[in-house]
Write a structure and sequence with these properties.
Helix content: over 70%
Structural class: mainly alpha
CATH architecture of the largest domain: Up-down Bundle
CATH class of the largest domain: Mainly Alpha
Order of helices and strands: HHHHHHHHH
Largest sheet: none
CATH topology of the largest domain: Four Helix Bundle (Hemerythrin (Met), subunit A)
Number of domains: 2
Length: 286
């Protein structure tokens, strides 16, 4: 009997510790949660700064060992954080496969990969993999409410933007083919040597980049180019208008809190919501 009571007490303490850790890590509304988010933001910013400075040859030659020590320190801290997140959530697989779960993993994996990919022949690969540590910057999004608001607006407008981009792609294919006929086939302009090359010119022009490596020489070609340039101004305005409208709507409907689901880690539920909008688990703000 006493053994059962002792096990029950230990189980209760363990659950209480897990609950406390969950509130600190996933609830930004508590003082401890806010402190955790702020500390994590500083760590993420410092780790990204180290990655940037390490890419400068002079700095790396002078402080390479310091950068290596700092990088492993950051990696160990973020590994502990990731492990604790997996421990306190109930549905570990759902969290690990979520957007932020993948970002968390990508931010620590490259450093460990350098241990299993030794040898001069892999140096280039290792350097590329280590640059993936910049994924840590995405971890900041989770801790900035305005960034979450923008992400929700982008998600809400993704369908409209996709349809618009498909329309622009269709226009570039048609106008690119027309320019190939006018400039490449009829006028013999070497710049418009194929349909893909002409479509490339159309994309560069319609995006208002204008490299100038390919230019039309005929009057009809220049007229088409003028039309493409005018369309280009619309391609900038339309997506901006779509996102702005969705952002205003999202802000008006942003009666949401930062309570995170203890099972999958999803946050920003509607005020008064009793169940997670992703996995259906009952949530609590207490």
């Amino acid at each position: 009997m006493f053994t059962d009571l002792r096990e029950l007490a230990e189980s209760h303490r363990s659950e209480s510790l897990r609950d406390r850790l969950w509130r600190i890590i996933f609830l930004a509304e508590t003082p401890a949660g806010r402190g955790f988010d702020v500390a994590l933001l500083w760590l993420i910013g410092a780790s990204v700064l180290v990655v940037m400075l390490e890419s400068v040859a002079d700095y790396k030659a002078r402080w390479g060992q310091l950068f290596l020590t700092l990088e492993w320190t950051f990696t160990i801290l973020f590994t502990i954080e990731y492990a604790v997140r997996l421990i306190v959530v109930r549905r570990r697989v759902e969290y690990a496969t979520s957007f932020f779960g993948v970002v968390d993993a990508l931010s620590i994996i490259p450093t460990y990969l350098t241990l299993i990919l030794p040898g001069a022949q892999f140096l280039v690969v290792v350097r590329v993999l280590r640059l993936m540590r910049v994924f840590r910057i995405l971890k900041m999004i989770r801790h900035v409410s305005q960034a979450n608001l923008l992400m929700r607006a982008m998600k809400a407008s993704s369908t409209k933007i996709t349809v618009f981009l498909l329309f622009i792609l269709t226009v570039t294919l048609i106008l690119g083919t027309l320019m190939y006929i006018v400039e490449g086939v009829i006028a013999g302009n070497s710049g418009f040597s194929s349909v893909p090359q002409s479509v490339y010119w159309c994309i560069v022009t319609i995006s208002t980049v204008g490299y100038g490596d390919i230019t039309p020489v005929t009057a009809l070609g220049k007229a088409i180019a003028t039309f493409v340039i005018l369309i280009g101004y619309g391609t900038i305005a339309v997506p901006t208008g779509i996102v702005t409208a969705e952002l205003s709507l999202t802000r008006a409907q942003s009666g949401q809190n930062t309570i995170a689901c203890p099972s999958c880690g999803t946050d920003h539920h509607s005020d008064g919501a009793r169940f997670c909008h992703r996995c259906g688990l009952e949530i609590s703000s207490s």
